[in-house]
Design brief:
The chain starts with a helix and ends with a helix. It is an all-alpha fold and 422 residues long. The chain has helices spanning 2-19, 24-38, 43-78, 81-92, 97-110, 115-133, 140-149, 151-155, 162-171, 179-203, 228-242, 247-265, 272-301, 304-314, 320-335, 338-348, 350-355, 360-371, 381-390, 394-421. Helix content is 76%, strand content 0%. Helix 5 (97-110) packs parallel to helix 7, helix 7 runs antiparallel to helix 19 and helix 7 runs parallel beside helix 20 (394-421).
């Protein structure tokens, strides 16, 4: 029981530290020490094995994409390509900046580009658009994360996300499971989310962001060339995925090619060496912070307190569908990972799954959507990366992230299940 109390206290401490602006590395280590002490585990062994394993596995798998992603974003920024894209997008969407950023992230995420890569790609463009429209940067992380972590991660049929693939191996379904249910849920989520962003921007006073980025908004023919790096990135990644090349490899090659296109299009006064050096250093910094979160998550899963938490969830006697949603979200909240929540749910809750009377396709879609709820905790990797890139404080941005990336998907799932039962 003491270990379970330690689990709760550790999670609360992690949240408080991140809200108060502590570095993710410090917050994760202090929270890890607390949970190890409560669970009466050896401190050195806990860090040397569980924490280090989680840290190194993530860093080893993703370091190249983080370096390439931040370098690409820096090149787009330094070489004025994001400014040119901002001018074109701002004009074509007639100043509807939020809709423009959501549309760009939607196309990229539904096309198979991962959340991390989308954050690196969209940020320089979105940042310029927000500056032009004088919208507070506190909304920027939520807008960047909204499509990749809701509609395009768990709802839309055929989305190539891990969360949409995990149920297929346990239920024998396909990634196109329950297409009508998923499409309606995605449409509702998109509309409610956009209305929230629209209301929030309308209610706030315009912020002083300095001089206009897009000037007089006159689009020069050369501005359209600024889309070439992003087109290159999406096109190469999509083609390589289609021919069966592993996703991360495909995206890495596509990003390297996109950086090459940026260099070709650069202005003579821009230093390529400086852009690449500063971009890669930012990538290492972001990777280290994110890997610390993954290390903490791995350590949590190795404790007796976490195992006791799972046992208590198994004992819940209520509707099997409600139990599945609750269990998935509790695991997601503790680990900060939708992937971990789905994997553990399908491995440990097979008895509860067998009691659900819904068709397997609907079970697939319901559990997938449920995993996209409380995975958006303050220490979740996507939340950390978005705030790191936007240089914003979690205290200022998390309200918007939690409402759009956690509450809205769960509310939509509840509405869909109620309609299903009518």
């Amino acid at each position: 029981m003491l270990g379970f109390v330690g689990l709760i206290v550790s999670v609360v401490l992690f949240i408080l530290l991140t809200f108060r602006g502590w570095n993710m590395a410090v917050a994760s280590v202090l929270s890890s020490v607390l949970i190890l002490l409560f669970n009466r585990m050896n401190l050195f062994k806990g860090f040397a094995e569980s924490y280090t394993q989680g840290f190194s596995e993530f860093a080893g798998s993703w370091w190249l994409l983080f370096l390439l992603g931040t370098t690409f974003g820096r090149c787009m920024q330094d070489m004025w390509l994001s400014d040119a894209m901002a001018r074109v997008i701002y004009a074509r969407f007639r100043g509807r900046v939020i809709l423009a950023v959501l549309a760009v992230s939607f196309v990229l995420s539904y096309g198979g580009i991962g959340t991390f890569v989308i954050a690196f790609t969209v940020y320089p463009i979105a940042s310029r658009l927000f500056q032009e429209a004088r919208i507070s940067r506190n909304l920027l992380p939520a807008v960047m994360l909204f499509c990749p972590t809701t509609m395009c991660m768990t709802m839309l049929p055929g989305t190539p996300s891990i969360q949409n693939m995990i149920p297929t191996s346990f239920l024998g379904t396909s990634i196109y499971a329950a297409p009508l249910f998923g499409t309606v849920a995605a449409a509702l989520t998109g509309v409610i989310g956009y209305l929230y962003f629209w209301y929030t921007t309308a209610a706030e006073q315009p912020v002083d962001t300095g001089p206009s980025v897009a000037g007089k908004m006159k689009i020069a023919p050369a501005d359209y060339l600024s889309f070439l790096p992003c087109i290159c990135l999406w096109g190469i990644a999509f083609f390589m995925n289609r021919v069966g090349i592993e996703s991360r490899t495909a995206v890495a090659v596509a990003m390297a090619a996109a950086i090459g296109v940026c260099i070709v299009l650069k202005r003579p006064s821009v230093s390529v060496q400086k852009s690449i050096n500063e971009g890669s250093m930012q990538g290492l910094k972001t990777l280290a912070a994110t890997s610390c979160i993954m290390g903490y998550g791995a350590l949590v899963q190795s404790t007796d307190g976490f195992r006791l938490c799972l046992q208590q969830l198994l004992r819940i006697s209520t509707s099997p569908v409600l139990t599945s949603i609750l269990a998935i979200n509790v695991i997601a909240a503790v680990t900060g990972s939708s992937t971990a929540s789905l994997q553990l749910y399908y491995k440990l809750f097979s008895g509860q799954i067998a009691q659900i009377t819904l068709p397997k396709a609907l079970i697939h879609r319901v559990t997938a959507i449920a995993s996209g709820g409380l995975d958006s905790m303050p220490y979740a990797t996507g939340v950390a990366i978005a705030n790191e890139l936007a240089k914003t404080s979690l205290r200022d941005t998390y309200r918007h992230i939690f409402i759009t990336c956690a509450l809205i998907p769960l509310a939509v799932l509840s509405i869909m299940l109620l309609l299903l039962s009518v």
